[in-house]
Amino acid sequence: MLSTFDLAGHVIGLIVDRDLTEDTLDEIIAGIKLKLEIHEKVNVYIELEKGRHITFSALMKGIKFKYSNSEHFDKIAIVTDSNWFQNAVNVSDIFLDVDVRTYDLKDRLEAIQWISL
């Protein structure tokens, strides 16, 4: 199940409690697009629960979506204990004009506070 919540009008929060596949990413993208119908720019919080993994194809699709829609993102917080996912996100966002930060699950409250501003 994919859980969503709003922290503020322009912030969408997503908690992924299954492996992050292309199908799951399609659900995430659909939620973001709905929010973009209301707000020109959004902040996105994505938490991948402990023990869940991301497929390489989902990672590539997510990077493509971020780059092709970067003008609509202000901040993105990725919360996961997957070191390789955090590193991939950090490397892929070097040339992106969006403030992207990764957090460990234990630091989720810090991530929520940061993304809500």
Automatic annotation (TrEMBL):
The lineage's top-level taxon is: Bacteria
Q: Which SUPFAM superfamilies match?
A: SpoIIaa-like
Which residue positions does the secretion signal occupy?
Answer: none
What InterPro entries does its record include? SpoIIAA-like (IPR021866), SpoIIAA-like_sf (IPR038396), STAS_dom_sf (IPR036513)
Q: Which Pfam families match?
A: SpoIIAA-like
Q: TM segments? A: none
Its name, as the record gives it, is STAS/SEC14 domain-containing protein
Question: Which species expresses this protein natively?
Answer: Christiangramia forsetii
Supply the source organism's classification: Bacteria, Pseudomonadati, Bacteroidota, Flavobacteriia, Flavobacteriales
